[in-house]
Amino acid sequence: MAMSVIWTVMVAAAVICGLATGNGPAVAKGALDGAAAGVELSLSMMGVMCLWTGVMEVMRRCGVADALSRLLRPVLRRLYPGYAGNQRVMDAVSANLSANLLGLGNASTPLGLEAARLMAEGSGGIASDGLCMLVVCNTASLQLIPTTVAGIRAAAGSADPFDILPAVWLASVISVAVGITAAKLFARVWR
Amino acid sequence: MDLFFTMLVPCLMLAVAVTALIRRVDVWSALTDGARTGLKVSLSIMPPLIGLLTAVYMLRASGALELLGQALSPALTAVGIPPETISLLLVRPVSGSAALGVGAELIQTYGPDSLIGRTAAVMLGSTETTFYTIAVYFGAAKIGKTRYAVPAALCADAAGFLAAAWAVRFLFGS
Questions:
Q1: Alpha helices in B23-147, H assignment, sequence order
Q2: Minimal Cβ distance to B141: which of A15, A117, A177
Q3: B83-97, pLDDT tens digit by residue?
Q4: B104 touching chain A per CB within 8 A
Q5: What distance in Å separates residue B87's CA from the closest CA in chain A?
């Protein structure tokens, strides 16, 4: 329901503001361009997505994911108490987390989606606490080395493009901690 | 450093394949079976992505983002966020590529080693495209009732933006 409201508000704001500022034709063109961009983006993601779900399946079958899972399990069991006993969910979640940490954004998304799909099985379209936590953790950036941003800074002539690393880590840790705390608190009161 | 990150992905693939072969796993059929699942997932992402990008493109074209920026500027200054970064704050949760564009523009305009440039960089590096992530995850999981995921994720975003502004101030001075 939340997305329905957000989407409607976004479209309403665009239409009203577009008419008021005389940008109406641009808004109309934006709608067409945006729809086309949605198709382009999902198609351009498709190859990488399939490659990574493929690699993930190889990892799963040869036990690499198990080893990774064991390493991250103490943390993840606390974060996802509802799925602590579900091997396949824990595999996908732990692989998703390690890909996030390494900044393999294209790899982490298919892994996270696999976890989300498994968590949603038999849930009747209602998000479980674990699924909400997974989404919150993935909306907070856990990247150790923000290479894209460092690239932009280098291009703009920064003296040391990587000097923001401590600030990025500090901000990331605070952001993730607040997200996890909020999710845990909301889980107790939200029905 | 650059080469290390460039080669991380191919080397990871190689390491997985070699490990699988040593353990006598049929790498090829595992890879293709997995890719087939990925195909289903990427198809289920397309509808929410089309919907979201349509709305974002309309918003950008309407000029609504700039208006909101002007309205929110005093509140931002009060909590310690440079008001110049407002366009980044607004765009960041909805569009990754737009945020990268806005951020790069801020960094170039004010200089990469300025307070605003650094703040924009740290904001980009410590937050994610929240609404896109939410749409994609719940779309793939076929979830209609998202419960508290959106407010909790927005709490994390707000904390990330504030922490970015404060961390830059704290670590790099005024």
A1: 27-62, 64-79, 86-91, 96-110, 115-126, 130-140
A2: A117
A3: 888 878 887 887 776
A4: yes
A5: 15
